[in-house]
Write a structure and sequence with these properties.
Length: 336
């Protein structure tokens, strides 16, 4: 049966009977895990297998594993990884890119081992002076071209390990002066300024398979609607100007930046041109509302999903894990 255009989470470390029944009936296109779902490697591997069993195919399973303060699989069972900003301590640009790629390759190893094959990384947002620290050290740099270079290195490291990257938060969250988890950021920069700064990394990585939207209003484009639910931003900027033809998912539809009920928000995102709605909290009533509001994965939506999944490397490139971990630690300790 055809999947529906949403990604869902669950509440705990294994699926409840109600969750199993719901996923079997609603057929989400994918799943996402959070810290609440990750106890140890054996448990996570069992949970990812449970999720796929409910929908009857090897559905994509996502996680936010960036390093730094956004790391859902954490010690003691998984290594601690550096935040993106930490790589700026490496002075040699070539070595910097190599170590960013290596860090992502190691994260891919951790994820692939437990059945996770999509990582919501790299962050391509470019912070500016006065912006909210919700991005902060999650950004690779404050220069768009450096962000693009290091973001591509991270994406390549993930794909080499059999994990798909998700570029985020398109078309840019770096100027936001509010945290979209709690409030609606409004960016008043001119379109020329956005093109020169915020959009550049996304344009450079427009060949990536998956992207996530920003719950941000850009007054120069659409003063009324956040990007996630704006036809102008999704169709004219993301698809048109940036040339992005990969699968676009929303950021978490539960975030306070978006107003309205869950069905209303999901329909608005789909009407805007987003392919898949992401819901992270695992709350059943919310998932039921979203499942009833989104379409099946057909047409261009299905084509983009198939193109993305076709880029999964099922046999990761060889990696000496212990040697790679030692190299990463040494590079960060010595600044390259």
């Amino acid at each position: 049966m055809t999947s529906r255009a949403f990604i869902a989470g669950c509440l705990g470390t294994s699926l409840t009977p109600d969750e199993r029944a719901f996923f079997r009936d609603a057929r989400p296109w994918g799943f996402i895990l959070f810290r609440r779902n990750t106890q140890d490697p054996v448990q996570v591997a069992a949970l990812t297998a449970q999720m796929r069993e409910t929908v009857g195919w090897h559905a994509p399973i996502l996680i936010d594993q960036e390093g730094g303060r956004v790391q859902r699989m954490a010690p003691p069972h998984w290594p601690k990884y550096p935040a993106a900003q930490a790589f700026l301590a490496i002075n040699d640009p070539v070595a910097q890119r190599e170590i960013v790629r290596l860090s992502a390759r190691l994260m891919a190893h951790d994820l692939k081992t437990v059945g996770i094959d999509v990582d919501c990384l790299p962050v391509l947002d470019v912070p500016v002076a006065g912006s909210h620290d919700v991005i902060g050290d999650r950004a690779y740099a404050h220069e768009p071209d450096r962000v693009a270079q290091l973001g591509r290195a991270a994406a390549e490291g993930l794909m080499a390990g059999g994990v798909l990257p998700v570029i985020k938060h398109m078309p840019g969250h770096g100027r936001a002066r509010a945290d979209s988890h709690h409030d609606l950021p409004v960016v008043d920069a001119s379109l020329d300024a956005l093109r020169a700064h915020d959009f550049r990394p996304f344009r450079h990585l427009a060949d990536m398979p998956l992207a996530m939207t920003a719950h941000v209003v850009f007054t120069a484009i659409d003063p009324k609607n956040p990007a996630t639910v704006s036809r102008k931003v999704v169709r004219e900027i993301m698809r048109g100007e940036l040339g992005y033809d990969g699968l676009i998912m929303t950021d978490d539809i539960s975030m306070k930046a978006l107003s309205g009920g869950f069905a209303q928000k999901a329909r608005a995102a789909i009407r805007a041109g987003v392919d898949v709605v992401l819901h992270c909290h695992g709350i059943m009533a919310e998932m039921v509302a979203i499942a009833g509001a989104v379409p099946e994965m057909r047409g261009d939506r299905a084509r983009r999903a198939a193109m993305a999944l076709a880029r999964l490397r099922h046999a990761p490139e060889p990696l000496d894990v212990e040697a790679a971990r030692a190299q990463l630690a040494s590079a960060l300790a010595l600044g390259g």
